[in-house]
Design goal:
The protein is mainly alpha-helical. It has one domain. The chain contains nine helices and no strands. The N and C termini lie far apart (about 95 Å). The model has no long low-confidence stretch (mean pLDDT about 80).
Amino acid sequence: MTKGQARRLNAFYGVDVFLELHAARLPGVATNPARQRFSRALAELIYYTGTQEGAPLMAQGLTAAKRAQVKALKRDHLRHIVRIAKLEAEQIPDLAMLKMLRGRPGIHTILNHATGIAVIADEHRDMFITAGCKPGFVDDLRAAIDEIIETLTTRTQRNGDRTGATKGLKSLFARCTKLVGILDSFIQSEAHDDVELLAAWASVKHVRRRPTRRTAVQPEITSEIAAVADADTTAREREPIRDPERLLPTTIPKVDVAALARPTLGGNLVAPN
Protein backbone atom coordinates (compact mmCIF):
# COMPACT_ATOMS: atom_id res chain seq x y z
CA MET A 1 0.00 0.00 0.00
CA THR A 2 1.31 3.41 -0.95
CA LYS A 3 1.28 6.44 1.35
CA GLY A 4 -1.48 8.02 -0.72
CA GLN A 5 -3.62 4.90 -0.38
CA ALA A 6 -2.99 4.87 3.37
CA ARG A 7 -4.24 8.47 3.67
CA ARG A 8 -7.37 7.60 1.66
CA LEU A 9 -8.00 4.55 3.83
CA ASN A 10 -7.75 6.68 6.98
CA ALA A 11 -10.29 9.07 5.47
CA PHE A 12 -12.67 6.16 4.81
CA TYR A 13 -12.24 5.04 8.42
CA GLY A 14 -13.22 8.53 9.51
CA VAL A 15 -16.29 8.49 7.29
CA ASP A 16 -17.45 5.17 8.72
CA VAL A 17 -16.96 6.36 12.32
CA PHE A 18 -18.75 9.65 11.57
CA LEU A 19 -21.79 7.84 10.17
CA GLU A 20 -21.93 5.54 13.19
CA LEU A 21 -21.66 8.38 15.71
CA HIS A 22 -24.27 10.59 14.03
CA ALA A 23 -26.73 7.90 12.96
CA ALA A 24 -29.41 9.46 15.18
CA ARG A 25 -28.96 12.89 13.59
CA LEU A 26 -28.90 11.39 10.09
CA PRO A 27 -31.57 8.66 10.20
CA GLY A 28 -32.16 8.77 6.46
CA VAL A 29 -28.49 8.29 5.66
CA ALA A 30 -28.14 5.54 8.27
CA THR A 31 -30.78 3.42 6.51
CA ASN A 32 -29.75 4.36 3.00
CA PRO A 33 -28.53 1.44 0.82
CA ALA A 34 -25.44 3.48 -0.04
CA ARG A 35 -24.46 3.31 3.64
CA GLN A 36 -24.56 -0.51 3.64
CA ARG A 37 -22.70 -0.69 0.34
CA PHE A 38 -19.99 1.58 1.72
CA SER A 39 -19.61 -0.62 4.82
CA ARG A 40 -19.21 -3.75 2.67
CA ALA A 41 -16.74 -2.04 0.34
CA LEU A 42 -14.71 -0.80 3.32
CA ALA A 43 -14.66 -4.32 4.82
CA GLU A 44 -13.36 -5.72 1.53
CA LEU A 45 -10.80 -2.95 1.36
CA ILE A 46 -9.52 -3.81 4.83
CA TYR A 47 -9.34 -7.50 3.88
CA TYR A 48 -7.34 -6.80 0.72
CA THR A 49 -5.06 -4.46 2.66
CA GLY A 50 -4.30 -7.20 5.18
CA THR A 51 -3.72 -9.68 2.39
CA GLN A 52 -1.37 -7.35 0.55
CA GLU A 53 0.67 -6.67 3.68
CA GLY A 54 0.54 -10.18 5.15
CA ALA A 55 1.09 -12.30 2.03
CA PRO A 56 4.78 -11.32 1.59
CA LEU A 57 5.48 -12.14 5.24
CA MET A 58 3.78 -15.51 4.87
CA ALA A 59 5.76 -16.18 1.69
CA GLN A 60 9.01 -15.41 3.51
CA GLY A 61 8.03 -17.82 6.28
CA LEU A 62 7.24 -20.53 3.73
CA THR A 63 10.61 -19.97 2.08
CA ALA A 64 12.34 -20.53 5.41
CA ALA A 65 10.21 -23.66 5.94
CA LYS A 66 11.19 -24.93 2.49
CA ARG A 67 14.90 -24.56 3.31
CA ALA A 68 14.45 -26.52 6.54
CA GLN A 69 12.50 -29.25 4.76
CA VAL A 70 15.14 -29.62 2.04
CA LYS A 71 17.83 -29.86 4.70
CA ALA A 72 15.85 -32.58 6.50
CA LEU A 73 15.27 -34.40 3.19
CA LYS A 74 19.00 -34.69 2.61
CA ARG A 75 19.91 -35.45 6.22
CA ASP A 76 17.17 -37.91 7.17
CA HIS A 77 16.44 -39.68 3.88
CA LEU A 78 18.76 -39.26 0.89
CA ARG A 79 22.07 -39.53 2.70
CA HIS A 80 21.26 -42.95 4.19
CA ILE A 81 20.15 -44.35 0.86
CA VAL A 82 23.11 -42.95 -1.10
CA ARG A 83 25.75 -44.27 1.31
CA ILE A 84 24.20 -47.72 1.42
CA ALA A 85 23.96 -47.71 -2.38
CA LYS A 86 27.65 -46.79 -2.64
CA LEU A 87 28.52 -49.80 -0.50
CA GLU A 88 26.32 -52.22 -2.46
CA ALA A 89 27.04 -50.83 -5.94
CA GLU A 90 29.55 -53.58 -6.70
CA GLN A 91 26.88 -56.22 -6.23
CA ILE A 92 23.97 -54.21 -7.68
CA PRO A 93 25.14 -51.95 -10.58
CA ASP A 94 21.82 -50.07 -10.66
CA LEU A 95 22.71 -48.46 -7.33
CA ALA A 96 25.80 -46.76 -8.77
CA MET A 97 23.57 -43.93 -10.06
CA LEU A 98 22.39 -43.00 -6.57
CA LYS A 99 24.51 -40.00 -5.60
CA MET A 100 24.07 -36.72 -3.79
CA LEU A 101 23.82 -33.60 -5.93
CA ARG A 102 26.80 -31.25 -5.90
CA GLY A 103 26.88 -27.47 -5.99
CA ARG A 104 23.73 -25.44 -5.47
CA PRO A 105 20.99 -27.06 -7.54
CA GLY A 106 17.51 -25.57 -7.80
CA ILE A 107 14.60 -26.84 -5.76
CA HIS A 108 12.95 -28.58 -8.71
CA THR A 109 16.21 -30.36 -9.57
CA ILE A 110 16.44 -31.57 -5.97
CA LEU A 111 12.86 -32.85 -5.99
CA ASN A 112 13.26 -34.66 -9.31
CA HIS A 113 16.50 -36.25 -8.13
CA ALA A 114 14.92 -37.35 -4.85
CA THR A 115 11.95 -38.83 -6.72
CA GLY A 116 14.30 -40.87 -8.91
CA ILE A 117 16.15 -42.16 -5.86
CA ALA A 118 12.84 -43.19 -4.31
CA VAL A 119 11.94 -45.22 -7.42
CA ILE A 120 15.26 -47.11 -7.47
CA ALA A 121 15.29 -47.60 -3.71
CA ASP A 122 11.77 -49.05 -3.87
CA GLU A 123 12.97 -51.66 -6.35
CA HIS A 124 15.65 -52.78 -3.87
CA ARG A 125 13.65 -52.17 -0.72
CA ASP A 126 14.60 -55.43 0.99
CA MET A 127 18.31 -54.80 0.52
CA PHE A 128 18.11 -51.33 2.06
CA ILE A 129 16.06 -52.64 4.98
CA THR A 130 18.63 -55.32 5.55
CA ALA A 131 21.35 -52.63 5.48
CA GLY A 132 19.63 -50.70 8.28
CA CYS A 133 16.83 -48.57 6.79
CA LYS A 134 13.39 -48.56 8.34
CA PRO A 135 10.71 -50.72 6.67
CA GLY A 136 8.82 -47.60 5.54
CA PHE A 137 11.86 -45.57 4.46
CA VAL A 138 10.64 -45.20 0.85
CA ASP A 139 7.23 -43.98 2.00
CA ASP A 140 8.89 -41.54 4.38
CA LEU A 141 11.06 -40.23 1.54
CA ARG A 142 8.06 -39.66 -0.70
CA ALA A 143 6.16 -37.99 2.13
CA ALA A 144 9.07 -35.57 2.63
CA ILE A 145 9.04 -34.78 -1.09
CA ASP A 146 5.28 -34.15 -1.03
CA GLU A 147 5.67 -31.87 1.98
CA ILE A 148 8.15 -29.68 0.12
CA ILE A 149 5.89 -29.55 -2.94
CA GLU A 150 2.96 -28.50 -0.75
CA THR A 151 5.05 -25.72 0.79
CA LEU A 152 6.05 -24.44 -2.65
CA THR A 153 2.42 -24.54 -3.80
CA THR A 154 1.25 -22.58 -0.77
CA ARG A 155 3.98 -19.99 -1.28
CA THR A 156 2.90 -19.55 -4.90
CA GLN A 157 -0.68 -19.05 -3.73
CA ARG A 158 0.41 -16.39 -1.24
CA ASN A 159 2.26 -14.49 -3.96
CA GLY A 160 -0.83 -14.76 -6.14
CA ASP A 161 -2.99 -13.46 -3.30
CA ARG A 162 -0.77 -10.40 -3.02
CA THR A 163 -1.01 -9.71 -6.75
CA GLY A 164 -4.79 -10.08 -6.66
CA ALA A 165 -5.08 -7.87 -3.58
CA THR A 166 -2.99 -5.15 -5.22
CA LYS A 167 -5.30 -5.06 -8.23
CA GLY A 168 -8.40 -5.33 -6.05
CA LEU A 169 -7.33 -2.34 -3.96
CA LYS A 170 -7.44 0.00 -6.94
CA SER A 171 -11.03 -0.87 -7.81
CA LEU A 172 -12.13 -0.81 -4.16
CA PHE A 173 -10.59 2.61 -3.55
CA ALA A 174 -12.44 3.94 -6.58
CA ARG A 175 -15.71 2.35 -5.41
CA CYS A 176 -15.41 3.73 -1.87
CA THR A 177 -14.66 7.19 -3.24
CA LYS A 178 -17.80 7.13 -5.38
CA LEU A 179 -19.89 5.88 -2.46
CA VAL A 180 -18.59 8.69 -0.26
CA GLY A 181 -19.71 11.12 -2.97
CA ILE A 182 -23.19 9.58 -2.94
CA LEU A 183 -23.36 9.75 0.85
CA ASP A 184 -22.19 13.35 0.73
CA SER A 185 -25.17 14.32 -1.44
CA PHE A 186 -27.62 12.71 0.99
CA ILE A 187 -25.94 14.27 4.04
CA GLN A 188 -25.96 17.71 2.43
CA SER A 189 -29.69 17.33 1.81
CA GLU A 190 -30.68 15.88 5.19
CA ALA A 191 -28.49 18.11 7.37
CA HIS A 192 -28.71 21.34 5.38
CA ASP A 193 -29.74 23.30 8.51
CA ASP A 194 -27.15 21.73 10.84
CA VAL A 195 -24.11 23.93 10.25
CA GLU A 196 -22.03 22.25 12.94
CA LEU A 197 -22.67 18.76 11.56
CA LEU A 198 -21.90 19.81 8.00
CA ALA A 199 -18.65 21.40 9.11
CA ALA A 200 -17.62 18.20 10.88
CA TRP A 201 -18.57 16.16 7.82
CA ALA A 202 -16.53 18.40 5.53
CA SER A 203 -13.47 17.84 7.71
CA VAL A 204 -13.98 14.08 7.97
CA LYS A 205 -14.48 13.31 4.28
CA HIS A 206 -11.43 15.35 3.28
CA VAL A 207 -8.36 13.28 2.37
CA ARG A 208 -5.24 14.75 3.92
CA ARG A 209 -2.61 15.72 1.42
CA ARG A 210 1.06 14.98 1.70
CA PRO A 211 2.80 17.68 3.79
CA THR A 212 4.97 20.02 1.77
CA ARG A 213 8.48 21.03 2.68
CA ARG A 214 9.38 24.56 3.73
CA THR A 215 10.60 26.83 0.97
CA ALA A 216 14.24 27.83 0.83
CA VAL A 217 15.49 31.24 2.01
CA GLN A 218 14.84 33.93 -0.56
CA PRO A 219 17.92 35.14 -2.53
CA GLU A 220 17.24 38.76 -1.52
CA ILE A 221 17.53 37.89 2.16
CA THR A 222 20.68 35.90 1.53
CA SER A 223 22.30 38.78 -0.35
CA GLU A 224 21.44 41.23 2.45
CA ILE A 225 23.00 38.94 5.03
CA ALA A 226 26.10 38.59 2.89
CA ALA A 227 26.36 42.39 2.48
CA VAL A 228 26.11 42.91 6.24
CA ALA A 229 28.80 40.30 6.82
CA ASP A 230 31.14 41.94 4.29
CA ALA A 231 30.63 45.37 5.87
CA ASP A 232 31.37 43.96 9.31
CA THR A 233 34.55 42.28 8.05
CA THR A 234 35.76 45.52 6.38
CA ALA A 235 35.12 47.53 9.54
CA ARG A 236 37.11 45.08 11.64
CA GLU A 237 40.01 45.19 9.19
CA ARG A 238 40.15 48.97 9.54
CA GLU A 239 40.50 48.89 13.33
CA PRO A 240 43.95 50.19 14.49
CA ILE A 241 44.54 47.22 16.76
CA ARG A 242 44.30 44.90 13.77
CA ASP A 243 46.89 47.00 11.77
CA PRO A 244 50.42 45.91 12.82
CA GLU A 245 52.02 48.96 11.12
CA ARG A 246 50.28 51.29 13.60
CA LEU A 247 51.65 49.61 16.68
CA LEU A 248 55.15 51.10 16.16
CA PRO A 249 56.27 54.36 14.44
CA THR A 250 57.97 54.03 11.07
CA THR A 251 61.24 55.80 12.36
CA ILE A 252 62.79 56.08 15.79
CA PRO A 253 63.60 59.79 16.79
CA LYS A 254 67.19 60.73 17.70
CA VAL A 255 67.88 61.62 21.34
CA ASP A 256 70.18 64.60 22.28
CA VAL A 257 72.37 63.21 25.08
CA ALA A 258 73.95 66.64 25.90
CA ALA A 259 70.58 68.20 26.37
CA LEU A 260 69.61 65.48 28.76
CA ALA A 261 72.71 66.23 30.88
CA ARG A 262 71.92 69.99 31.36
CA PRO A 263 70.32 70.68 34.75
CA THR A 264 67.34 72.94 35.08
CA LEU A 265 66.61 75.58 37.70
CA GLY A 266 64.78 73.13 39.82
CA GLY A 267 67.58 70.60 39.62
CA ASN A 268 65.71 68.36 37.24
CA LEU A 269 66.90 67.29 33.85
CA VAL A 270 65.46 69.03 30.86
CA ALA A 271 63.43 66.70 28.77
CA PRO A 272 64.16 66.83 25.08
CA ASN A 273 61.76 68.59 22.79
